[in-house]
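Batch manifest, entry 17 of 40.
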Amino acid sequence: MAKKTPLHALHTELGATFTDCGGWSMPLRYTSELAEHHAVRTTAGLFDLTHLGEAEVSGPEAGRALDHALTGQPSRIAVGRGCSSVLVHETGGVLDDLVVHRLAETRYRIVANAGNAMVVLSQLRDRVDGYAATIRNASGDRALIAVQGPAAQAIIGAVADRDVVSLEHNAITPARLGGREVLLARTAGTGSTGSTGGTGSTGGTGSTGGTGSTGGAGGIGEDGFGVHCRPADAEALWRTISAAGTGHGLLACGLACRYTLRLEAGTPSCGRELTPRTTPFEAGLGHAVTFGKPGGFVGEAALAARRDQGPTRVLVGLTSTGRRAPRTGCAVLAPDTGEHIGEVTSGALSPTLGHPVALAYLRTDRSAPGTEVLVDIRGGHEHARVVELPFHRRPA
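Output type: structure tokens
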């Protein structure tokens, strides 16, 4: 039986349609995913992201242990800050993209994708063994509510006991919202993955498969906040935030719209763009890999070899002017020779841009922006062009 978040009864009250996501019964949509998508882009959306997995690592060598376990260097994160990192297999393939917060000098909290939560926990337990650090499953500690979109700052500012304008992106801090104690995380409004914070993302759509991304608001290209609260406070906080957002056009949003939001932001998703067959370099996550750390990290040798060889394929963005959107698994062909040069991993008609967009892995010699390609959609060939990511970027 699928697990339910503390907000499940409230979602039912609001008329949500539910889907399974990583073993959780989660809202897919409340009204229409198109309306919810536009709300996040123009005003703000309110999400339940409690399904994301969480683990806590603490102890004198917690930072060193995570440096060894992950591709990044959590030991260098300042207290009260967060960053993205990647958990890779010894072969260099991606197991999950994570958000890491440093809550105290010797205490870290890791947010993982819902479908990978137990894999991440098991891998971290093995990798911190031998260090003066302990790890525990923290998934049931808190509920997670996210407010994302241009009006997020005004909405959270109206109910917070502190100045949220000064809260830097990727920061996490204790706060009170509507009189209730929370951990408040500011999430970055860029088109990059991971990053951020707080919300953890990022969840998948349910309707389209995949486990989603923990990229949070950064993963969908909008500013936002993650509200980590006691499960018993979740419903009251949701109602408080919802009331504060009434004048700002805030909508309750399900996971379906996150698919098109993160696609427009060019964010790779676990289970689609990020798999054990894909290294961070192919997916454009080379910035999340730190070589030369004291003691090294799991997968370093394999990733160093891949870095030196250079990837044979890379993740790119595709756009087209037709009405048929590429879908997962569609073959990408060279228009001059008809040869297979890649495959679509995610695709949809962009609600914001009004034309089809897709993410695809292409051969490096066919991956330059401006390259013309053909996409095989149910036996028909649609013209598309390689473009720089993200497809959509919030104006500065």
